Amino acid sequence: MCGISGYIGNKDAYPIIINGLKRLEYRGYDSAGVLMYDGAEINLSKTKGKVSALEEITNKDPKRKEGNIGIGHTRWATHGVPNDLNSHPHLSQSGDLAIVHNGIIENYDTLRKELISRGYTFQSDTDTEVLVNLIEEVKKQEKCKLGKAVQMALTQVTGAYAIAVFDKKKPNEIVVAKLGSPIAIGIGKNNKEFFIASDASPFIEFTKNAVYLEDEEMAIIKLGRDIRVRKIMNDLQIETSIQELQLSLEQIEKGGYDHFMIKEIHEQPKAIIDTYRGRMLADQGIIKMAGVDDNLEKFLNAERIIIVACGTSWHAGLVGEYLFEDMARIPVEVEYASEFRYRNPIISSKDIVIAISQSGETADTLAAIKLAKSKGAFVFGVCNVVGSSIARETDAGAYTHAGPEIGVASTKAFTTQITVLSLIALKLAKAKGTLSNSAFHTYLQKMQLIPSKVEKLLQLDEKVKEIARVYKDAKNCLYLGRGFNFPVALEGALKLKEISYIHAEGYPAAEMKHGPIALIDENMPIFVIATNKGHYDKVVSNIQEIKSRSGKIIAIVTEGDVTVKEIADHVIEIPETEEALTPLLTTIPFQLLSYHIAVMLDKNVDQPRNLAKSVTVE
Ligand code: F6R
């Protein structure tokens, strides 16, 4: 998982590439590098650390920034520890070729040995340096141009890649290729400039026209010429499809907030509306979703729905299980994509697989989809990133329309995924007749009120901040919920651990007495979801059990609650709604709480250690 940013044209390439890398740091940020060509010489700058560390180097020597062509990289280490040498770009042995790479070359060791036997030496531990030397070797052997050499070299490679390759001897072109990792090409007016990036965010202010390469495609980007896209395996030229981007610059900037995470938390009312806008016609009592409508028979006849996802998206999938089974009476299994893909699961053509992914690039989810498709299942995607690999790989799908999520900790992706899953469950329930007409209408009315209720909850920010101040030094926390709110407990714990590095566990409230209760003492904060519907009395009993063991109770209750208020140390009230919709509300205080604790502990909220926004490797 890494970010690639490149430019070729008539502008100064450096600021475009560096700003692009900063926007792509969500993809990895353990080292960064940039290669500039100033018309005569290559200038390579790279370092361990963030893009800001790279800037410190280039600022000391302005020559490093000169030129109208360059390629840059922000890394999330796979092969080789994060250090200066392993940072990209990597040069070939002759120093003529340079490469940036996102992905993993699985057979790099064999290729490396082969190249060593031909006299190559290596400066780094990376698979990427092997690839650039392989390209150089092919170019030398075949006496061919760069494009051909890249294509032939890639036929020898197994693994995943998005690459951009530059040849000092042909300084008016960059060759890019893709398999498994994303790459987009922004096209300037009259082909006078081109932008290369892992997603469109680095070039959004320069052009709205972009080509997204598909797997096993490569393109030769040459100034003044239309982009030519070819298939890597058979060298066939294919028609180039130019897409018009919907992204705006404002959407990818912080807009006055200190961090992307808090901006994205506050965007949720709008994101939820954007997700159901045009789909949920509450007044008419209709839910329109093209991906479901076009395949309604398949959904209605499905013997089972299997949801595959990772991390937060998996938590949304768990909420989906409760929704589908409760409303539409379809059996559901929720699987970690990473387990599903390798455990030889039973899948048949009567199954529907729903793959959930914010980024649409998660390697395990993508592999689970491919497996399901190979067994004949119909695969439906719930993705946020338009045009992402998962969106393209699935048979049909529904976008979440949350807008770009830059903060590594997922927030608005989660609530919009639940929104999409609720719409699908309601739609199927209506079509199957498993939900009465009046209940269906009530849900639509209540769903329409969710954004304003989320807005109201966001106004509790100060209160949540006070609670954060009390518990910020806790070493361990427990999150408990039942029914629809059990997945929210898991998600609350994940949010806390990933950005504040405090150990936290989520549990179904009733499971507490089967083990975790042993952990409770006066130092243990326990966050309990105790909304008035859904097992309220039973959760109240759990709260009593915690109290009698001196645990600190922070409860999320429904407005007007009396009982829990008397027992808990702190309460946060959520507005009343249908039980099935409560996850859209109960998750908000947990997001705010994790955010404030991480800020108070001076952690890097948007780029927590060791994490990357989308995990495109196993
Ligand atoms: C947690 C988080 C991760 C992702 C997971 C799946 O805040 O962001 O757990 O949810 O890596 O990513 P996507 O949804 O992009 O497939």
Q: Would you kindly provide a written description of the structure presented here, covering whatever features stand out?
A:
This protein has 618 residues and is α/β, with parallel strands linked by helices. It folds into three domains: 3-251, Glutamine Phosphoribosylpyrophosphate, subunit 1, domain 1, CATH 3.60.20.10; 254-459, Rossmann fold (3-Layer(aba) Sandwich); 460-609, Rossmann fold (3-Layer(aba) Sandwich), CATH 3.40.50. 37% of the residues lie in helices and 23% in strands. The strands form five sheets. An eight-stranded antiparallel β-sheet has the order 3-2-4-1-10-9-11-15, with helices on one face. A seven-stranded antiparallel β-sheet has the order 5-6-7-8-12-13-14, with helices on one face. The chain has a five-stranded parallel β-sheet with strand order 19-18-20-21-22, sandwiched between helices. The longest helix is centred in the C-terminal third of the chain and has 22 residues, at 437-458. Bound molecules: fructose -6-phosphate. The site of fructose -6-phosphate has 15 residues, from helix 11 and helix 18. Fructose -6-phosphate binds at residues 310-313, 357-359, 362, 365, 409-410, 494, 498, 614-615.
How would you sum up this structure in a few lines?
The protein is an alpha/beta fold and 618 residues long. 37% of the residues lie in helices and 23% in strands.
